[in-house]
Specification:
heterodimer; A: 306 residues; alpha/beta; Rossmann fold; Helicase, Ruva Protein, domain 3; 2 domains; 5-stranded parallel beta sheet; B: 663 residues; alpha+beta; 5-stranded antiparallel beta sheet; 4-stranded antiparallel beta sheet
């Protein structure tokens, strides 16, 4: 099992160069059944990452480009009145939207109106959509990657702070290291390589891996560390409010997924530290509007491991 | 910049903190207010009030020129009021006004701290004026308040709730109490009043005077002030024998008695008879050399630094400026064994020429009728008793040149000094040596502490006559006209139509009397154990512990202080020491990692074990295998829930003996 996951990471690494950590976080997020928010400028490989992930895991993929005139129905799907050529009867038929695929890339999610954003976020949370009275479940491995461009300030609807914690993790890609960028420029186009990429996991294997996440042991000693971190965010003078209990559960789950990727049967403090910034940073709200919230790294450094 | 109301005076001082500070300042200054000149009390209160208003409205403070001018003006005003700027009163006045002016200068954190220490200092200056028990209680409370402000002003940002700071301030002062007691006991005492600066020490106090004119004692007894407390060794004498002897008057100018008399010659030899009465007197400062004692004092058991004059007065060698306690032994019965020297007889029979002629004539008439000394006395007392003489607090004013005549033959209303004066005049006119004695008569018994309090209202005047073979005999003419005065007290001796001033009414409710007795007892204990703890008592007390002299004292104080700091330090260390690690796996892990610490490889608090091991291996590759195994066992035990791995971990830890790198 473990071997497969490592192979998955390896083959992802051939597509997205020099971003092992982000790839691993993305995979951990997926394993933990969470959703991922990538915040970065365009052109650093967000879409490539999403495509590679779906390809390597053998999952169906849809991409939605969010714009200000995007409507909820454009994502969820719509019922259309049509005539059946064979029987001659007419009836409404539901045309599922792009959300009905296993990996959804919601590109530039902060460009859409809050209404559309809400529709997406609700589907992410419920893992089902209700359209015209009928509740339709979403496919089982269901993974939303949303991207957000922090540089754009005009014509965007930033996700409200309260909705940020619908995403298990928030990461940013960053520019590739020099060696990786060199390879990128020297070798052939990544998109063609992507097409040749073979799945390393079947959907059922993925589901099994997801169910293994919850079985990674978290001992009382580790829970004490989680609590120490959470309490530190609540006590911190620079923070308006600390991590919620839901955030604590998310942190544990993400650490479990990370430990699984590391091939461990129990979570160790380093696993928590590895995912802490990705899980916690976007949930921390600075106490003062003008000042930035303290970094998750600073909090990690201030909290002793019990 | 913004329209939001400012809440701080400076970045160091919150408005709310400043307002509280002002309240505490008023609390600290309050007892001084009555002692200051009116202009200063008003000015200080005005400055404090203005500062509060200014803080709310965010006024800018006056420039340093104005502040300097104000300070100079305050200086000048104090100088004009007192004629000096140092000394007890002027110094305190200057301190108070400067403390108030400091309020206009609170620009920096340093200024706030200076204010705090000024307040502490002002607290201590109250002891210059009062060392009563309530002063101590008040000042302890003030100290708690100032400490509370000190804590609050050291806190940045929003002021802490008063409950939190006051609790901590109280705790700090409580913690300081043992130290205070220690210093009180051990700090070397300086003989003489520590506070009373000599220049100001002569302030007027009510009490007996060295002269006596009609109306003097009647005025004195309106004071409820304590004169002294008496603690008898055994049974006290009956009330009518408690004559506390004070100034004795020989000279009479027809109206006023003054001391005169034979100066400091040895007392007449007397034969003391009867049982001795021993007692201890705690005398309130009266700024004279008079000590009070019962007749007749045993000269072999005089208090230290005192002497007995020829007329039986007990004198201290220097004025009593602070409360003192002394022991004396008296014999109520005695016999003269010598004749009155001629010179003394002349002094004791001298009368001013052509004054009070009717009294002189009456006495001479009695003499010519053939009365002897005893009959003369009896006749006089009989006259007081049988004619219409009244004992009153408000006698008519004797305005003429012959007050004794006026009293004896027309007004016939008088207080003890009238009777004593008239009686002595009659005796002298009849050729019997006589003199006036003043002092206190009686005293109120405090049932709580079984001692007597004698107040200014117990002031009294009586006479003494020389009778051959018996010596000086006390005759109290007041007893003839108002026996109750001597048998009981003043209130019972006055007529029904005449009442005592409110402060002197001791026959109030039972509860009040009880409370008063209790409070007086508390004060007596306070005087006895705390205020009386001067150099003598300190020497006596500490010598019981083998501490003699200054060097021992200093040594004891240093040792005690070091011990105290040592104990507190140990407690603090104990508290700071990390708790014993409960988790066995963690304890083993720390134990092993501790062995790397010698080489500077220390696991940081936030550093995970895996990261630490990786860091160590980077520097000590030779330990790689051992450390990896150890780490695996540790992680398995502590983070994977494999409790059975613990024994392996224990073994590995025992075996883990990294070789030390030579520096």
């Amino acid at each position: 099992m473990n071997l497969d996951l490592n192979r998955t990471l390896d083959s992802l690494g051939t597509i997205v160069l020099g971003k092992e950590r982000q790839l691993k976080l993305a995979l951990a997020c997926l394993l933990a059944r969470g959703h991922l928010l990538i915040e970065d400028v365009p052109g650093v490989g967000k879409t490539t990452l999403a495509l590679a992930l779906s390809k390597v895991l053998g999952l169906s993929f849809q991409r939605v480009q969010f714009t200000s005139d995007l409507l909820p129905a454009d994502i969820l799907g719509v019922s259309v009145f049509e005539r059946d050529a064979a029987s001659g009867n007419s009836h409404f038929r539901f045309h599922p939207g792009p959300i009905f695929s296993q990996v959804v890339l919601a590109d530039e999610v902060n460009r859409a109106s809050p209404k559309t954003q809400s529709a997406l976020l609700e589907a992410m949370e419920e893992r089902q959509v209700s359209v015209e009275g009928a509740t339709r479940p979403l496919p089982d491995p269901f993974f939303v990657l949303a991207t957000q461009n922090p540089a754009d300030q005009i014509g965007v609807f930033p996700l409200p702070e309260s909705q940020m914690d619908r995403f298990l993790m928030r990461i940013s890609m960053g520019f590739p290291p020099r060696a990786a960028e060199r390879a990128l420029l020297l070798e052939q186009d990544r998109r063609t390589l992507l097409a040749e990429l073979q799945p390393t996991l079947t959907p059922s294997q993925l589901r099994e891996a997801q169910s293994l996440v919850g079985k990674v042991v978290t001992t009382p000693a580790l829970v004490d560390y989680l609590l120490a971190l959470i309490e530190a965010t609540r006590r911190h003078a620079g923070l308006k409010q600390g991590l919620s209990p839901r955030a604590g559960l998310a942190l544990r789950r993400a650490a479990q997924a990370w430990a699984l990727l590391e091939g461990r049967s129990g979570v160790i403090p380093e696993d928590v530290q590895a995912v802490f910034a990705a899980v916690a940073q976007h949930r921390l709200i600075a106490a003062e509007r003008e000042r930035a919230a303290p970094t998750a790294e600073a909090i990690l450094e201030a909290v002793a491991i019990p | 910049m913004s329209g939001a109301p400012k809440t701080t005076v400076t970045s160091y001082l919150h408005v709310a903190t400043l307002l509280r500070l002002l309240v505490v300042l008023v609390l600290v200054l309050a007892p001084h207010m009555t002692r200051l000149p009116t202009w200063e009390a008003a000015a200080v209160l005005a400055v404090i009030g203005w500062r509060a208003w200014a803080a709310r409205r965010h006024f800018t403070m006056p420039s340093k020129w104005i502040r300097g001018a104000l300070a100079l003006a305050a200086f000048a005003a104090v100088y004009v009021s007192y004629g000096r700027i140092n000394g007890q009163h002027a110094g305190v006045a200057l301190l108070v006004v400067m403390a108030a002016l400091k309020l206009t200068e609170m620009d920096q954190r340093r200024d706030v701290m200076v204010m705090m220490f000024l307040m502490y200092f002002v607290c201590s200056t109250h002891f210059l004026f009062s060392q009563e028990l309530w002063t101590l209680v008040y000042l302890l409370l003030s100290t708690v308040a100032v400490t509370t402000m000190l804590i609050e002003s050291n806190h940045a940002g929003e002021p802490l709730p008063l409950k939190v700071t006051a609790k901590r301030g109280g705790a700090l002062v409580l913690q300081a109490l043992p130290l205070m007691l220690l210093m009180f006991v051990l700090f070397p005492r300086i003989p003489g009043p520590l506070w009373g600066l000599p220049s100001d020490a002569g302030a007027a106090r009510s009490g007996l005077s060295d002269r006596m004119a009609p109306g003097d004692i009647a005025a004195l007894i309106l004071s409820d002030e304590l004169a002294f407390r008496v603690d008898f060794d055994g049974e006290a004498l009956p009330q009518n024998q408690l004559y506390w002897r004070g100034p004795v008057f020989w000279d009479f100018d027809g109206r006023e008695w003054s001391e005169g008399g034979p100066v400091y010659t040895a007392p007449y030899p007397v034969m003391l008879q009867g049982a001795a009465i021993g007692y201890e007197i705690t005398l309130e400062p009266n700024r004279t050399t008079w000590l009070f004692a019962l007749d007749t004092i045993d000269q072999s058991q005089l208090p230290p630094d005192s002497l007995v004059t020829v007329d039986g007065r007990l004198l201290a060698s220097k004025p009593v400026r602070e409360r003192i306690a002394y022991r004396a032994v008296s014999h109520p019965r005695y016999l003269a064994v010598a004749e009155l020297p001629d010179q003394h007889r002349r002094m004791a029979t001298r009368l001013p020429r052509a004054r009070n002629p009717r009294a002189v004539a009456l006495a001479q008439q009695w003499r010519t009728e053939g009365r002897d000394d005893a009959a003369m006395i009896a006749a006089t007392l009989q006259m007081f008793r049988e004619q219409q003489f009244f004992y009153t607090l408000n006698p008519p004013i004797l305005g003429g040149g012959d007050p004794v005549d006026e009293f004896l033959f027309s007004t016939k209303r008088g207080f003890c000094e009238h009777y004593a004066s008239a009686f002595t005049t009659l005796m002298r006119a009849g050729g019997i040596p006589a003199r006036v004695v003043t002092g206190y008569q009686g005293g109120a018994r405090n049932a709580i502490g079984d001692y007597y309090t004698v107040r200014q209202s117990d002031a009294h005047a009586w006479s003494e006559v020389w009778l051959a073979g018996r010596g000086w005999v006390r005759i109290d003419p007041t007893a003839a006209v108002a026996p109750n005065r001597v048998e009981q007290n003043l209130a019972s001796a006055l007529g029904a139509e005449e009442s005592l001033p409110f402060a002197l009414r001791r026959s109030g409710s039972r509860l009040f009397t009880q409370l008063e007795a209790r409070w007086d007892w508390v004060n007596a204990q306070w005087n006895r154990w705390v205020l009386a703890y001067g150099p003598d008592l300190q020497r006596e007390f500490l010598s019981r512990f083998g501490l003699e002299g200054w060097r021992d004292l200093m040594l004891a104080m240093i040792v005690a202080l070091s011990l105290a700091t040592g104990v507190f330090g140990l407690i603090a260390l104990r508290r700071a020491r990390p708790k014993r690690i409960e988790d066995e796996a963690l304890r083993l892990w720390r134990q092993a990692m501790h062995r790397l610490a010698r080489d500077g490889l220390i696991q940081r608090p936030h550093e995970g074990p895996q990261h630490f091991v990786a860091r160590v291996i980077e520097q000590r590759p030779e330990l790689s295998a051992e450390l990896q195994a150890l780490l695996a066992s540790y992680l398995a035990t502590r983070y994977a829930g494999h409790a059975e791995a613990q024994s392996g971990l224990a073994q590995q830890v025992r075996a883990f003996k990294p070789r030390r790198i030579k520096a």
